[in-house]
């Protein structure tokens, strides 16, 4: 019998510190109105000194396991998507592995930035479909706050980012036409635009990887050509969403819930408008959490499933765009 994966459990965890737009005005030349009007964000959550990327990921994992009625020992493999590795070498997933005492199961960091959760979902799903593993933990975990320029120079990027992790536990089930599970995932990239949204240093391409001059020039902070990124996001997201639904022989009207990456509420409104998706079918949380990059989509999924707004049999479409550039979409039947 052919296999597919279903999401058996979800979980989420965010930074303990609430950072409002008013807080940001103390550090940089900005205004509460500018941030809210241009991005939709009112506040974001940043970690405190008790939290790390791997502790956020662990908290989300425990919740996902509890919802699935499973234990750490039931996980066969960990895939963790992030752009903000707890340590560049070896990453974040190994510290999650340590935190939850995952024995000797394999784990790996996956880097596809804001599309990272969907890239990891595609790989987790493939591992299950090929019979390699029965239960794969797919996590998106991000801590941006420790790497942001909170001065006026960094204001375009800094105001959008938040810290958070989301986890999903994928489990193998037999394929059933109308049954639950991940139906399709499509991923794309355009490396030619990588430098339009990136952090230049530290870089293993240079010696030393970072120096005083780079620090002075703020090369260790993320830099973004905001308008260029915005334009690509509102074009690529509808494209890949439709491609994915088409591959699953589904129409826009079949989908019950649309989840978009949370980079800017205006991007999501533009995507929904282009596709004529009714507002009530779209769920956002950027107003409260900002942009948690790879954490954004699994956090949305966890919130929706925990509030009971997702019913068995409903179709969910997830779409993201991010640095790389990367963009991806998935469609799944809940249950
Ligand atoms: N407060 C006040 N003014 C600001 C701020 C701020 N926080 N940021 C920028 N400005 C100013 C600029 O200096 C500029 O002023 P000027 O006209 O005097 O030169 C003006 O506002 C317009 O600047 P833009 O950068 O063109 O502002 P824009 O309207 O594009 O908004 C934003 C910036 C919100 C970042 C937007 O471009 C955006 O959302 N881009 C896409 C983000 C995205 O999707 N990222 C991908 C995912 S993230 C990832 O993968 C890691």
CATH architecture title of the largest domain: 3-Layer(aba) Sandwich
Query: Largest sheet, if any?
Result: 5 strands, mixed
Strand content: 15-25%
Unreliable stretches (pLDDT < 50, length at least 5) are: none
The radius of gyration is 19 Å
Order of helices and strands: EEHHEHEHEHEHEEEHEHEHEHHEE
The counted number of beta strands is 14
The largest sheet has its strands arranged as 1-7-6-4-5
Query: Mean pLDDT, rounded to whole units?
Result: 97
Structure report:
This protein is an alpha/beta fold and 335 residues long. It starts with a strand and ends with a strand. It is built from 11 helices and 14 strands. The chain folds into 2 domains: 172 residues, Peroxisomal Thiolase, Chain A, domain 1; 153 residues, 3-Layer(aba) Sandwich (Peroxisomal Thiolase, Chain A, domain 1). A 5-stranded mixed beta sheet has the order 1-7-6-4-5, sandwiched between helices. α8 packs across α9. The model has no long low-confidence stretch (mean pLDDT 97). It is globular, with a radius of gyration of 19 Å. The structure holds acetyl coenzyme *A (ACO). The site of acetyl coenzyme *A (ACO) has 25 residues, from α2, α6 and α8.
Gist?
The chain has 335 residues and is of the alpha/beta class. It has eleven helices and 14 strands. α3 (53-68) crosses α4 (93-99) and α8 (226-247) packs across α9.
Describe the structure using short key phrases.
single chain; 335 residues; alpha/beta; Peroxisomal Thiolase, Chain A, domain 1; 2 domains; 5-stranded mixed beta sheet; 11 helices; 32% helix; globular; binds acetyl coenzyme *A
């Amino acid at each position: 019998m052919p296999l597919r994966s279903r999401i058996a459990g979800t979980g989420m965890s965010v930074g303990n510190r609430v950072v409002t737009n008013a807080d940001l005005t103390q550090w940089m030349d900005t205004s509460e109105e500018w941030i809210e009007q241009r991005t939709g964000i009112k506040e974001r959550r940043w970690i405190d000194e008790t939290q790390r990327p791997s502790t956020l990921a662990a908290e989300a994992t425990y919740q996902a396991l509890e919802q699935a009625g499973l234990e750490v020992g039931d996980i066969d493999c960990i895939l963790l998507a992030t752009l903000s590795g707890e340590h560049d070498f070896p990453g974040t997933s190994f510290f999650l592995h340590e935190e939850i005492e995952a024995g000797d199961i394999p784990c790996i960091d996956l880097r596809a930035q804001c599309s990272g959760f969907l890239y990891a979902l595609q790989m987790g799903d493939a591992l299950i479909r090929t019979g390699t593993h029965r239960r794969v933990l797919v996590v998106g975990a991000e801590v941006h706050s420790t790497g942001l320029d909170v001065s006026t120079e960094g204001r375009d990027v800094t105001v959008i980012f938040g810290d958070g992790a989301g986890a999903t536990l994928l489990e193998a089930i037999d394929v059933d036409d109308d049954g639950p599970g991940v139906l399709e995932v499509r991923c794309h990239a355009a490396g030619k635009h990588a430098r339009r949204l990136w952090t230049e240093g530290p870089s293993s391409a240079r010696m030393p990887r970072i120096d005083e001059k780079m620090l002075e020039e703020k090369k260790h902070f993320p830099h973004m050509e905001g308008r260029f990124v915005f334009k690509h996001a509102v074009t690529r997201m509808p494209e890949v969403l439709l491609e994915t639904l088409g591959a699953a022989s589904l129409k826009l009207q079949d989908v019950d819930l649309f989840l978009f990456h949370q980079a800017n509420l205006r991007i999501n409104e533009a995507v929904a408008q282009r596709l004529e998706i009714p507002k009530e079918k779209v769920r956002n949380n950027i107003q409260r959490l900002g942009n948690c990059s790879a954490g954004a989509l699994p956090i949305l999924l966890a919130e929706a499933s925990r509030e009971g707004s997702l019913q068995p049999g409903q179709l969910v479409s997830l779409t993201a765009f991010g640095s790389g550039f990367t963009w991806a979409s998935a469609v799944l039947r809940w249950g």
